Amino acid sequence: MTTRRFLNLADAGSEGIAAILADAAARKSARNGWPKGRIDQDRPLDGAVLAMIFEKNSTRTRASFDLAIRQLGGSSLILDSGSSQLGRGETIADTARVLSRYADAIMIRTDHHHKGEELADFADVPVINGLTDLSHPCQLLADMQTVIERQGPLVGTQWAWLGDGNNVCNSLIEAAGLTGFDLTVACPIGYEPDATFVEAAGSRVRVTSDPDDAVAGATVVITDTWTSMGQDGEEERQESLAPFQVDEARMAAAAPGATFLHCLPAHRGEEVTDAVLDGPASAAWDAAENRLHAQKSLLLWAMGKL
After folding, report:
1. pTM as predicted
2. Maximal C-alpha separation, the chain
3. Nearest-CA neighbor of 114 among 229, 11, 7?
4. CB neighbours (10 Å) of residue 77?
5. Which residues of the chain have pLDDT under 50?
6. For a surface tag, which of 14, 61, 240, 270 has the fewest beta carbons within 10 Å of its beta carbon?
7. What is the dihedral of CA 24, 30, 34, 36, to 10 degrees?
8. What ranges in 13-112 are assigned the alpha helix state H?
9. Which residues are catalytic?
């Protein structure tokens, strides 16, 4: 049996994504009112170990995966560049070989996507992309779960992305193509998403440089910080992306009852205003919670339990 990997949404495919989202909803509902540390009734990953590699800092990814494996009955190992041999030059391949002896699955959050690919090539256990410079599929699982909770089935929803065509945007494009919602991406010229993802998504995805065109009638409006880690101080980015801010006027131009999403952390007053992020349309906090629930089901899928 081939070891599953989850470096992009396409690795799970439409059926895998549907199974993950359905299981996440069921598990979330079953835990209603429970203490956060209580283990799920069925303990589906009893005794399993998840190794987590952090070459980039994290709050939500680290906390949600750590709690996810615990709620499933397992435990975690956490490694970062400063306290492991990765930071001293040990190869990804050798790290994969070693961690495969200690853990039942590996999650990596890193800068370059090829590191995740190399890790998956040499690991004997499932490898999950917790974020790379190319994609952020775990965030999109949580976003899709959140929209289903608020609006029902994804088919028929109309999403608008405003801002940098970054890793989250690439996974959003991939999600549209795999699950069948419509998406308009509005980016400044020079900040467009990866053309490979756009081509693969087909007619579900449209790219424009007009943010007002993108948001008109949208049922979901989504954005991300303009300056990802390692890009701080780029004044040119701020100037180019400023016209793509999501403010109250933009949300008013979306469909009635539209949902606002942001993967967090937010730079308030830049890509989004306080009034939108803290307003009734915002589901950013629900999506942050759903990182936990969706990733629990992702772990089950990766380990062949779904």
Report:
1. 0.96
2. 54
3. 7
4. 14
5. none
6. 14
7. -20
8. 13-30, 60-71, 92-102
9. 109, 136, 139, 224, 263, 291
